[in-house]
Write a structure and sequence with these properties.
Elements: E1 16-17, E2 23-25, H1 26-32, H2 38-54, E3 63-68, E4 71-76, H3 78-86, H4 93-121, H5 127-136
Antiparallel strand pairs: 1-2, 2-4, 3-4
Helix pairs in contact: 2-3
């Protein structure tokens, strides 16, 4: 985990694990979402698994049972984290915060895609080229 700065709440990205595969630990996400016990949180993971099944998305690539730090845990993909947050208890402020985070990330992603499309239409390869065009005008 990246070390959060003092007096700053850790973010979703602070709990990101980089290795051969990008993942988040279910035990970290559980605490971020305000869950105190694994049994209750496992029910939310099970809901996310059902959504993956319904979407015909491979669960084994998104929710992977693992032993991490000598404890039974799950490695979660970003999609799994999103689905868990969306299926979490809306009475928990941490869940609402996580839902807002993912909605914001989606909006940013869509904005970047739109910007990329604008670059392509203008024949611009690098975003710095686009910025230099704006500065010249």
């Amino acid at each position: 985990m990246n070390k959060p700065t003092p007096d700053v709440e850790p973010t979703f990205e602070d709990f990101h694990k980089s290795s051969e595969d990008d993942f988040w630990k279910a035990s970290d996400l559980m605490l971020m979402l305000g869950y105190q016990d694994r049994k209750t949180f496992k029910q939310v993971i099970d809901k996310a698994s059902k959504v993956l099944n319904a979407l015909e998305v491979d669960i084994t690539e998104n929710i992977i049972p693992s032993v991490i730090d000598n404890k039974q845990d799950f490695k979660l993909s970003e999609l799994a984290c999103y689905l868990i947050a969306m299926n979490g208890d809306p009475q928990k402020p941490e869940v609402i915060y996580a839902q807002a985070y993912f909605i914001h990330q989606k909006e940013l992603s869509e904005g970047m895609k739109a910007l990329s499309s604008i670059y392509k239409k203008a024949g611009i390869i690098q975003k710095d080229d686009f910025l230099s065009l704006i500065i010249q005008e």
